[in-house]
Amino acid sequence: MNKDAFNGYVGVFDSGVGGISILRGLVRELPHERFVYFGDSAHAPYGEKTPAQVLSLSRAIVDDLVHAGCKAIVIACNTATSAAAEELRAEYAQLPIVGVEPALKPAVLSKRHGRVLVMATPMTVRLRKFQDLMAAWGDEAKVIPVPCTGLAARIEKGDLDNPDVTDLVCELVGEYAGEVDAVVLGCTHYPFVANQIRAVLGDVPFFDSAEGTARQLRRRLEECGLLAPNGQQGCVEFLSSKDTPEELALYRHFFQ
């Protein structure tokens, strides 16, 4: 990366295209900011790797973004947040680092004593961050976590209107059709297949992390005196570890 070109940007990263669902929320909330989005598609998906692997990959990405002059980082990946956020904040104490987490709290508060389905990657479901979240809110509703193996990887391939996407969703969560009151999309990839999930589970409220993450980024930038001036022209730059024209075109397609 060219340091002069990226100086003053907010760095946003994910294992691939999923974090673009968060990026869209960031741009809506902060239209004057300049964003660099890095998708680690060469190593996707993170949700089926070990915590040590995810930490190593995340550390390398953040180090690159920091050396390129980014003023803040958004970890637009539930798995990477769970596996790496605590360590990265300790290592880059001078840098605002905002993570994401499954939107369980708003889902539970919307349906007290209801049945809340949480769709997430296998690692997100296993790690302490999510277990603590369940412990905090599990008394307010019946929380049903489902590790959705293979779904993020399938989304990475694009062509989401192909019937095999709905078939996979049905295989993963079809047994809960008509049985839940709210659905938490606990991986940033999943909002891109919300229609397919709704076709399987029915017309129930969905909750994701985009709006909450955007509000938190605004708060952190304001606290640190880093918020872009209203007169600045906002922009988005896409980068990928799978650096091909086709991959970057896929990123722009998901963003649009």
Describe the structure.
- It is a single chain.
- By secondary structure, this protein is α/β, with parallel strands linked by helices.
- Helix content is 46%, strand content 16%.
- It has helices at 3-6, 20-29, 51-67, 78-91, 104-110, 122-126, 128-137, 151-156, 163-173, 194-201, 210-223, 245-255; strands at residues 10-14, 34-39, 72-75, 97-98, 115-120, 142-147, 182-185, 206-207, 235-240.
- The strands form 2 sheets. The chain has a 5-stranded parallel sheet, sandwiched between helices. Strands 6-5-7-8 form a 4-stranded parallel sheet.
- The radius of gyration is 18 Å and the shape is globular.
- Mean pLDDT is 93; it is low at 1-6.
Low-pLDDT stretches are 1-6
Q: Oligomerization state of this entry?
A: single chain
Relative strand content: 15-25%
Estimate the mean pLDDT confidence.
93
Query: How many β strands by DSSP?
Result: 9
N-to-C SSE string, H for helix and E for strand: HEHEHEHEHEHHEHHEHEHEH
Which structural category fits the helices and strands? alpha/beta
How far apart are the termini?
Answer: 24 Å
Rg, Å, rounded: 18 Å
**Biggest beta-sheet profile:** 5 strands, parallel
Shape: globular
Number of helices: 12
Can you give the helix content as a percent range? 40-55%
In which order are the strands of the major sheet placed?
A: 4-3-1-2-9
